[in-house]
Structures are given as structure tokens and as C-alpha cells.
Amino acid sequence: MANSRSPSPFFVVLFGFFLFLIYSMSDVHRNWTPQGSKRSSPKKLDHLILGDTPGQGLPNRLQCDGLKAMNKIDLSNENLNSSERVSFVTVFTVYNSDFTGTNEKLHDVVTVGNIAYSKVDRSMAILGTFIKFIQVSMPRSSVIILTDPASKFSINHQNAILLPIPGDYSRESLMVQRIRSYIAFLGKRLEENESLEGSIHFIFTDSDIAVVDDVGHIFQKYPNFHLALTFRNNKYQPINSGFIAVRGTLDGITKAKIFLQEVLDAYNTRYTKAYRMLGDQLSLVSVVKSHLPSAFQKFSRQKAFAGEVNGVIVQFLPCAVYNWTPPEGAGQFHGMPLDVQVVHFKGSRKRLMLESWNYFNSTSSRSNMLCLILRSGRTKYDF
Questions:
Q1: So which residues are the signal peptide here (predicted)?
Q2: Are 318 and 302 in contact (CB under 8 A)?
């Protein structure tokens, strides 16, 4: 009777290797696309989609029953007005070649509510909505729009003005130009009035934000800072440039201008390849890290703190309150803090910003509007 022998370990390993190789090749074949072709990206939606409500059951988070807020109370008009006067400053431009609409393609037109928007119309609508949110939450505040002198557009809001600032506002350089425009604006303030004593403070923001509460209180609550930045627990981009507050004193404006000039210098020497996107945030991180590396150990705590950056007192404020972003696939998975002050509609959230304003305008409830934002935040829209 012949002896039966089990396979040797070598042949077992070899057989396993061949199985792995066959599976890997079939996987490559499934995912292969012909050279020059593009994978189809997920289609963005042209209407709001309500999903699960992040943060339900968690403490200190907005609780919603459908679109009804269960634990958020709208403030009265009396409580909305802080004693501090604040001007919001944003950089905005339109490109005149697009503004004519002669090359507008049919697929570039989107509809929100009963209004159809071209590409430029969308930008103007976002700017207008930005101003209207400020009018509701901080009616004593004004809006200053820094823009390209060659840009041709107008605004019809009593509390908003255009201020042309020369520079390169091309799409490729818009982010670095934003820092230059901020510096030029602060320089103008110093030239106009050298006896500034906090008559008016400034908050530099992106135009795709909604101020949903009075943020003027930060100048009283934190009385010693020159400049304030918002931070988040993000390893690569811990400081967001969409909200920068400057105290309106001579010392505050002077120190803020010095700080931003150092940021611009870092931008021009280290991040020239990021003029169009992210370079401003990378430059902010670089400047803070070079003078105050201990700040980065505190970002995970989500508590406001202050530190000195090359002679400038910087107040660090949590994004969760002053620069909160709806959870589009990543980010704020744990809901909306009850004390949120500013909502930032970054990326494809622009439609959500317009839809939120329309919903607030029809209901007069900021609390319920926040539920709409929270439940819609994970969806990619057509803006």
C-alpha cells in the first residue's frame, strides 16, 4: 500500500501566491479605465436631501425632531446687539468675461427655489445671502467688500459698501491676493485715523459664511488680543483662514498688519504653488508654528486660548463655535454645538447656504434653520 503524503509547505505557499496574483489581476481589470478617459464622479444633487441628524443624544449638541429644534432658543433682538461695533470685511470679485453671460452653458444654470442662477448669479447670490445673515444677526454691523477696481458689479444693501483695492484677483492668485487686500485695508485704516481707540472692530471672513448669532462679544469676552484666529483638530490644516478678527485699536490694527505681513511673506517664499488654494492656511500654520509651537498641543481641546506670536497677542477660537462647517462626508460628525455662532458653507455646500436663507426667510426660526443645515450637510450639491 502506497504511503499518502500531505503537500509540502512550499507548495502550499506557492499555491496561495498564485491565488493572490489571480485575484489582484482581476481587481486591476475591474478598476482599469482606458487611457485618457475619466471616471464618472458622483452626480451632485440639485435639491436638498435630508439625512440622519448627527449628534443626536450627545450632550451640548443641537437636538432636532425633523426640522424642529428641541433645545435651541432663538435670541431676542435685545440680546442680539453687543455694545461693540463691528465691520465684516470680505474679498469678492467677478470676472467680466463671465459676467456678460454670453458663454453661459445650459448645464451651468441651476435653480434654487423659483430662481435660476447662472455661474456669476450664484456668486452674487452667495454674497447677498452673506450680507443678509449679518443684517439679521448683527443689524448694527456693516460689510466692506474689498474688490478688484476693474470688476464691474453692484450691491443693493444699505449696510454694505465696495472698496476697490488694486491687485491680482485672477483665479490663480485669489487666495494670496486676499491676504494682500487685508493688509492694504488695514494700512488704509492707519492712514485715515491714527487715534483709533476701538471705535470699530473688524472681522475678515469668507463670503460663504452665515453669521447666525452676534459674534461682537468676542472683543469683550477676550479683551487683550490683537488678532483672533479659528482652529480645529486637523493635523494638516488646523487653522482656517475664513474668520480672522482684528481689534479696532491703533495697537490692534498695527499688530494685525504686522502679523498678516509675515503670513504673506511665508506665502510668497514657501507656498507659491498654492496661490489658488490652501496656501493661506498653510502660511498661517507656518507663522504660528515658528513662534508658538505649543499652540498645536491645545487644538484638540476645543477651548479658546491666547498666545503671543512674534509680539502679537493672538486669540485662538474653536472652529466648532466660530467657523463651523456642515459635515460633508468628513469633519463634524458629532453634530452642531449649541453655541455655534458662524456656519461656513465651504465647497459644494453653497446651495445649502441659499436654501437655508430661504427656509429662515419663510419661517423666521434660526433654530429650525440650523436643523435643516445639520440634516443636509453630508450631501454634495450642484453649486
A1: 1-26
A2: yes
